[in-house]
Specification:
Order of helices and strands: EHEEHHEEHEHEHEEHEHHE
Largest sheet: 7 strands, mixed
Length: 313
């Protein structure tokens, strides 16, 4: 069986790296305090590939997380943030008269940022739905595939923030998002940026399966527009947020130390060498100092997220 890109369906691929599910489980266990080996089933190794046609980077076999996995993540305050730069950016495209559909809405934080009162969210998490209900926000326990059957060409804006990278079949997700959208309507997707520093951050476990199964660059977001005959309004990068400044600075310090000492950068995904542990501790200290110099917007690099805005023709 040939491996194909989940976006372009192309076999024109490059294998970047392989990672063992045992190593993934160890990293998640350290973070979550729970064994998640059941998420991987019998799979022992997962390949990380780049499509040379769409530029999408993806993991195969594709293993996406269960609801119980996400329930473990919800104990962290930062997982469902009320304030996100992409919310502020996307809200400028939404008028009070617009009907809005948000896929993977969480507790409906975005609904409280927009002028429109005609908002519907789709969400599987029961905890998030209960929180949304307390704020009288309409949330349905439906997939976008189900919703598109009953509500074709219904919405002026369809959006999803930090969702697409979790999806095993992005084509189905995009296709049904567009089915819900009126002609001339806007499709807005926000994802972690593969063109930002996060793609260089080693042991960044949340950017790996079963949490994230795809990495999106500007080129892959532009490919969506080409494939689906959409007008690309903008591909917008947020500036580095306060939340991620020390992470960025430590990543920069780590890369610099490797270069200074002429040491191989090693694995991209999970790095287990003792030298990495030593340099990471030193980089963390240096990163705290460098963070002090990241107060002026003019010096800030691209941040964690990128948002693609498309118009359905």
């Amino acid at each position: 069986m040939k491996i194909t890109c989940p976006l372009s369906n192309s076999t024109n691929l490059s294998l970047i790296e392989e990672v063992s599910t045992k190593d993934l489980n160890k990293k998640y266990q350290k973070m979550l305090g729970a064994d998640i080996s059941e998420e991987f089933g019998q799979t022992e190794k997962i390949g990380f590939y780049q499509c040379l046609d769409s530029d999408l980077r993806f993991f195969y076999p594709t293993i996406t997380a269960s609801e119980s996995f996400y329930e473990k993540l919800q104990k962290f305050d930062w997982y469902y943030l009320d304030e996100k730069e992409e919310y502020n950016y996307a809200s400028q495209y939404i008028k009070s008269s617009h009907s809005v559909l948000e896929i993977g809405s969480g507790k409906g934080a975005f609904a409280q940022k927009i002028a429109s009162q005609n908002y519907v969210g789709l969400e599987f998490s029961q905890t998030a739905m209960e929180l949304a209900k307390q704020n009288k926000i309409t949330i349905l326990n439906q997939s976008i595939q189900q919703h598109s059957v009953d509500f074709p060409e219904t919405y002026d804006v369809v959006c999803a923030f930090q969702v697409l990278e979790h999806i095993s079949d992005p084509n189905s997700f995009i296709d049904t998002s567009l089915k819900c959208l009126k002609p001339g309507g806007l499709l807005i997707y926000s994802v972690p940026s593969a063109d930002s520093f996060i793609s260089l951050a080693k042991n960044n476990i949340l950017n790996m399966p079963p949490h994230h199964v795809t990495w999106w660059s500007d080129k892959s977001l532009e490919y969506i527009g080409q494939k689906y005959n959409l007008k690309i309004i903008e591909v917008h990068h947020e500036k580095l947020s306060n939340l991620h400044k020390q992470w960025y600075a430590s990543t920069l310090a780590s890369i610099s130390l490797y270069e200074l000492l002429n040491i191989s950068q090693g694995n991209l995904l999970i790095e287990k060498r003792l030298i990495h542990k030593i340099l990471s501790k030193l980089a963390s200290l240096i990163g705290r100092m460098l963070t002090l110099g990241l107060k002026d917007d003019r010096i800030l690099p691209f941040g964690h997220s990128v948002t693609g805005v498309y118009q359905k023709l």
